[in-house]
Design goal:
Length: 318
């Protein structure tokens, strides 16, 4: 099966110089913004039956990267989050576990120990999250520290300043270096789509990340005003679909930030199903970076099971 490494080698000519990479990225078809937003809005109106909704809720729970990325994070908070990831609803053990717990590098060892014996992955933001403004050696050290502590996945941020200045090869080489430093850990590349200004830039960033060896492309850090939207996620889904058609390599997608309700999550799952199909309807290929979403999914899951909403103390507050 083709790998991200083989995909990177397939673009050797396009990445041989800054000029070649610019020609490739600016040669991608322009995005019809009106058409993109209309399609995303249209797919968001799809209704699903109750049995399909129950399946979608469990699928969405299993796709969540349960996240805490605050300066006030403590080992106790991380252990509590890990416990919730393994058993999101302690009263109902049929509830699926989440995909991962995402923390800062210094909390990876704590999360890893708390998740021992479970299938929940440990993801860690690295590379000077969330701004990405640091020297490359600092970013690589950050990545290696997280991997050494047991991280299964690395969520890196690109240097948006370099990207917007047109220094595409610099961004490409940085992703390649972080991918190498990640070793066996899967690499999610965060674009911060809200800062990229245009859909054309999001398409270019998507291809740049995939060409450089990303295992996932991710919309946002969740730390800016505009995060994941149906339109920017649809655009990224189209990019991974086209990339697989060209290279045979499948890349994951992770919308993050601003997805708070079950209704929102189902809209995104419809986008996945209608754009890239069932191959991506699995937490190995699609994730939600949205911790507050879990509580609403649990409330809706309990409503489907009992016919009534639980009180506000039914779920833990993250």
């Amino acid at each position: 099966m083709p790998t991200t490494a083989s995909a990177a080698s397939a673009f050797a000519d396009a990445t041989a110089s800054d000029g070649a990479l610019r020609r490739f990225l600016h040669g991608l078809p322009g995005v019809d913004a009106v058409g993109l937003e209309a399609r995303a809005a249209s797919l968001g109106t799809r209704s699903i039956k109750t049995t399909a909704k129950a399946y979608a809720i469990d699928l969405a729970i299993s796709m969540i990267d349960l996240t805490t990325l605050e300066g006030a994070d403590t080992p106790g908070k991380v252990r509590a989050l890990a416990a919730k990831a393994v058993h999101p609803d302690p009263i109902d053990r049929t509830t699926p576990a989440t995909a991962a717990v995402c923390v800062y590098p210094d909390m990876v060892a704590t999360a890893k120990a708390a998740l021992k014996g479970s299938d929940v992955k440990v993801a860690s933001v690295a590379t000077a999250f969330p701004a990405g403004r640091a020297a490359l050696d600092v970013k690589l050290a950050d990545t290696r520290d997280a991997v050494a502590a047991g991280a299964d996945e690395i969520d890196m941020v690109i240097d948006r300043g370099a990207f917007l200045a047109g220094k595409y090869l610099k961004v490409y080489e940085e992703i390649r270096a972080v991918k190498e430093a990640s070793g066996a850990a899967r690499l999610k590349v965060i674009f911060e789509t809200g800062e990229l200004s245009t859909y054309d830039n999001i398409r270019r960033a998507s291809w740049l990340g995939m060409m450089a060896g990303a295992d996932f492309i991710k919309t946002s850090t969740g730390k800016v005003a505009v995060n994941a939207t149906p339109a920017n996620t649809l655009l990224m889904l189209e990019a991974v679909r086209d990339f697989r058609a060209q290279t045979g390599v499948q890349i994951g997608v992770k919308p993050a930030g601003g997805i708070r309700t079950t209704k929102d999550a189902i809209k995104f799952l419809v986008l996945v199903n209608e754009t890239v199909g069932e191959d991506w309807l699995d937490n190995h290929w699609f994730r939600f970076g949205a911790s507050s979403l879990l509580n609403d999914l649990l409330m809706q899951r309990q409503k489907l099971a009992t016919g009534r909403y639980s009180g506000p103390d039914y779920v833990t507050v993250d």
